[in-house]
Amino acid sequence: MNQGPKGGPFDALRNLGNMNEHMRKLFSADYFQNLMNQVPPGALDGPDQMDLGKILNGQMWGSTGKTQLDYPRIDIYQSRHEVIVVIEVPGLESPSDVNLNIKPESLSISGDMLPSSTNNKLDDADWHIHERFSGSFHRTVSLPVRVRPNQARAQYRNGLLDVHIPKDGRQARRKQGSPVPISFL
Length: 185
Prior knowledge:
- The protein has 185 residues and is α+β, with helices and mostly antiparallel strands.
- The chain folds into two domains: 7-63, no CATH class; 70-117 and 132-185, Immunoglobulin-like (Sandwich), CATH 2.60.40.790.
- The chain has helices at residues 11-26, 29-37, 52-56, and strands at residues 73-78, 82-88, 98-102, 106-113, 135-142, 153-157, 160-166, 178-179, 182-184.
- The strands form two sheets. The chain has a five-stranded mixed beta sheet, with no helix packed on it. The protein has a four-stranded antiparallel beta sheet with strand order 5-4-3-8, with no helix packed on it.
């Protein structure tokens, strides 16, 4: 009986079992959750459930500007005592346009970006390029360290929402989030 390069006749089956375990780890629930978060809005609305043409032809990657993978764009960095989050959300006019919620391990932002109010006939317009985002958005990101949500402060200026959140060195297990008031300058 041919034992193959590894020596045992069942090594090939054992390798298949190992490959199965690796595939399960690779394609875990988190993988599919992240994949579904990248499907453009409207791609799952029809009876066909998914328009692969939209996804594969670049609409998913922002070539039309109407669907963005990660909107709003976010920068996160930390100093010695706090985590700083800078969120790009141009066109907000008041704090009621956006909701910011911070938990000890994550930050969530949601709101509505309306088309420019300077042109009330946007639906009838003959668009040549339409790259600016409009519509509802929601994004949640993990923070690099535990923070104190109830001490966060946020300021909006020139299209950027600047959030400062003190770090929390304690090992508390409180999971409740805190809404953050935003001051507009």
